[in-house]
Amino acid sequence: MSATHTDTAAAVVRRPTGTRVTRALGIATLIGLGWFVTFGLFLSPDDAVQLAGVRILYLHVPSAWLAYLAFIVTAISSAAYLSKRTRSLTWDRLAGASAEVGVLFMGITLLTGSLWGRMSWGVYWVWDSRVTTTAFLFVTYLGYLAVRGLGGSHHQRARRSAVVALLSVLEIPLVHFSVEWWRPLHQQESIAKGKLEGLMLFSLFIGVVVFTLLYVWLVMHRQRVLAMEDALDDHGLEFAIAERREEALF
Amino acid sequence: METRFVIISYIATFGGIGVLVAAMLRRARVLAQRLPPEDRPWT
Amino acid sequence: MTSIEVTRLVAAKDLRIELRSRILINQVLPFAAIVMVLFAFALDKDDLLARVAPGLIWLATLFSMLFVVQRSFAVEAADGALDALRTAGVPARGIYFGKAIALGLQLLVLEVLLFLAAFVLYNSRVGADGVVLLITSALAASCGLGLVGTLYGGLTTGTKGRESLLPLLLLPVVAPVLIGVTRATEAALGVGGISMHEGWAWVSLLVTYALLFGIGGSIAFGPLVDDSV
Predict the structure, then answer these.
(1) Mean pLDDT confidence for A109-115
(2) Rounded to the nearest 5 degrees, what angle is found at the Cα of C88, between the Cα atoms of C85 and C93?
(3) Closest CA to C176 of A160, A138, A170, A143
(4) Fewer CB near the terminus (10 Å): N or C of chain A?
(5) How many angstroms separate the CA of residue A144 from the nearest CA in chain B?
(6) Which residue of A has its CA nearest to C225?
(7) Phi, psi dihedrals of residue A47, rounded to the nearest 5°
């Protein structure tokens, strides 16, 4: 057991979390990224009203879509973990990885949305239902990730986080409806976003595709990293003892 | 103003993603060196 | 022992502990009162204070609630009381509702004091037609807050710096309550141009919230506290 560890430790691992699938996915993502930047920044025209500002939407709308998808994946994986038939730490790690990537996309959504809002409405923030609920989802994600860091065994972490994730599924609609009643969606926003067509719509579409590929790539890798972290936790003591023993031999 | 914001958005977005990807892959490499292949069933 | 008996006993236990230790009366109520005074220092204009009084009352309630929730579970963590109850096979649902009721009642006491403070400090006034709305909305909100506070309090109880997670988790979740009860209170106090009709609509949101978290919480509470190590 300890001998195998020291043998492999010497070898530099060149592709720690990569497989054929992720390599293909990564290449597809990079190609798509190239297309996206070409169309989004150069080939598509300026908008009549928003001028160049519409290009921010090509980032903003896909990230928002992915942030919500990531949340859904976290929720479903959490439910899968809790169900006795499919209890496996892989679901827990998938939930965690998806949440982390979701936070990233949520941050991008809020940043690009804020800049776009400054250009279109003159303000960096507006208290309407969509923006506020998005900010709430962001804070909820952060809370979920904090709960994942609370410690204990892997299964304790998994059960605790899964319950919190499902409670968030309960919470988010309540937040959405209460904010929607409080401050209904801005009329001007629906008009401004409704008129994309032609190359602009195509750029948006590429954006959605590329970001989705990126999401899958990120989650696959991150989930494997989390698996390794858990394995390290499990074996950590064995390895430390083995290393100390070998030191004693010299 | 528009051009400035567009540039900031794209740089922040892809720069941010790039930084996180680099950090994640670096962490993956460190972990993989310390673990036997059995702990990496996807390879 | 049925869940209902457990609920009654746990609620009585929590309230009895509070009556004897008087933490709520000696520490939390003064804190809430100070917060109300500080609001006046910060906001400065008298007519503004009357206008925003509902929001201030409920903000003070939420901030104070954090202490009450932590206190509610500190008594359980000491000597491993909650773990002992669970190991003895006491149904988690009973414990959950018992603690939620105790928490809700303590919050009601707190809210009464805060309303009085607002009447005195901010010159708030309520008409006869507003009183019913005021009381109903406070009751509905306290139910929801009690249920949610007990749930997340159970999650964050224990050692290793978990308590500091309570605000981050709880405050976002209670946002719908804050929005709803503040609007209802504004309607009851006759500020902010909200009609009584709208105020009652917000009460329905508060009731829905309490129902949903009552159901969700009773399922989730057991797994959450059993995990606390």
Answers:
(1) 94
(2) 55
(3) A170
(4) C
(5) 19
(6) A160
(7) -80, 155
- ipTM for the predicted complex comes to 0.90
Q: Within 13 Å, how many C-alpha atoms sit on residue C213's CB side?
A: 32
The tokens for A205 are 């579409």
> What's the whole-number mean pLDDT along residues A77-83?
94
Contacts of A39 (CB under 8 A, 6+ apart): A199, A202, A203, A206
A154: nearest Cα among A78, A224, A92, A74: A92
| B1 interaction partners in chain A (CB closer than 8 Å) | 119
Nearest to C3 by CA among C101, C144, C97: C97
For chain C, the residue count is: 229
For residue range A9-63, list pLDDT tens digits in order.
445 566 777 888 888 999 999 999 988 988 888 887 887 777 778 888 899 999 9
Which residue, chain included where needed, has tokens 């010159």?
A: C123
Subunit partners of chain C (3 or more CB pairs within 8 A): A
From the list C207, C5, C138, C163, the residue with the least C-alpha distance to C72 is C163
Helices and strands, number each (H, E), in chain B: 1, 0
| Cβ-based neighbour number of residue A24 at 10 Å | 11
pLDDT tens digits, one per residue of C8-52: 999 999 999 999 988 888 899 999 999 999 999 998 888 888 899
Dist CA A182 CA C140 (whole Å): 18
Higher pLDDT, A72 or B39: A72
